[in-house]
Amino acid sequence: RYISLSTEWHALSQLPAMTKSGLMIRDIEQTTTVMHQFRSYLVDQMDFHALHFPQAAIELALTARRLSVNVLTANVWPSFWIRPLLYAHLTLPSGLQEIKKAFL
């Protein structure tokens, strides 16, 4: 189940000393913002700058819930979640690699 961020904030406001949880919710909000910026950037590049990316990469990037950008801060999220990321090797399809380089 998905709970809205406003519901999460309300639940956390009822509990004492939940600063780390609040920071985690803030990170989730940042993720939402970055994903929106990424999609807007991609559409802008295709519409106004005539950049062409593979159709499969575009569909993946623009279809909701198929791709998301995650903001992880090691000082907030538990280290046992961060540690596996040190050893993860994610290989993006070539079209998404091009998009990532342009966006960053």
UniProtKB/TrEMBL annotation:
Protein origin, superkingdom: Eukaryota
User: What is the protein name stated in its UniProt record?
Assistant: Uncharacterized protein
Q: Which InterPro entries match?
A: Cullin_homology_sf (IPR036317)
